[in-house]
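Hello K.,

You asked for the raw outputs rather than the summary table, so here they are, unedited. I folded two proteins back to back in the same session to keep the settings identical. This is the first:
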Amino acid sequence: MPSKLIQPEGWAPARGYANGMLTSGKTLHIGGQIGWTRDQVFESRDFIGQMEQTLANIAEIVREAGGEVTDIVRLTWFITDKREYLARQKEVGQAYRRIFGRHFPAMSVVVVAGLIEDDALIEIEATAQID
């Protein structure tokens, strides 16, 4: 099986990238997701709100590929404000658990000067192994 494009039903088309690609080995590579809705609209200008939406987007892509959040093996977070991230750790944990429960894959957090979408405060890439 060649790679298969994963695009959740009803989502606006990604521009210049794929939301997800499922390989023949059942590895799902999820392109950087940000805190906008399926219609590419930011409903929140707040870090926690965007983080929760970003994680929800990842979860939806994994489910579209036939998996669950427990199939996620890696997350790479790109954030624009280290101080806010550190100051809001309790809220970060609560929002994370609302979407992913107590599943904690390998993770990295990278502080960046900015993201392509000016209103984005966070972007997360993910990898999942779908059985």
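The second followed immediately with the same parameters:
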Amino acid sequence: MPLQQATLMRRYKRFLADIETPSGETFTIHCPNTGSMKNCWVENTPCWYSDSGNPKRKYRHTLEVTTTPEGALAGVNTGRANALVEEAITNGIITELQGYDELRREVRYGDENSRIDLLLSGPQGDCYVEVKNVTLAEGGRGLFPDAVSSRGAKHLRELQKLAGNGVRAVLFYCVQHTGIETVEAAREIDPEYAQTLDAAVAAGVEVIAYRASISAEEIVLAEAISFAK
């Protein structure tokens, strides 16, 4: 379903945003992003939102896309990331993850009570794919995380153990930001995450990054971009 355009007035209490529609109506919508959304939005700029159509929801509308200070578009609904990656795998867009017969979601694994976002299985063995949504940009550099993420470091440790045991383990950066050209760890924001990522890559964890094409009509992963170690 196409997204609806409005003006983003403010974001507050992490999960709420106030918008104004082209007709002048103002109301509060759900903001589905637990991060800081640093550099992702500016007051009184265009945004796009979805409508669940469910009148029983306290906030039936969801913020999906914002305009960055540089004028790029950012997909701020982190809940879309896994579906975007799954769709791109199914449609053959992510060439690095082709050739598997089965795809499962949210499978329990590891020593730290984790769930892998996507588990691919085939004759060549299993491939564990952990998906992270990237929206923080500094120039053309995409940075993750946008706030300290102990959960992100935990997932890296789990992937590192898999890779050490000879299992294919992939960290996938789903870049929902039209201005990002490369992705790297946000070392100044979360040094522990960056160090854990370095160790994971050294142990054999693969890092793949794809950037989304974002419009009111659709959001789809479209092209690979480079990971800067």
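Helices lie at 81-90, 150-164, 191-202.

Happy to rerun anything if the numbers look odd on your end.

Regards,
P.
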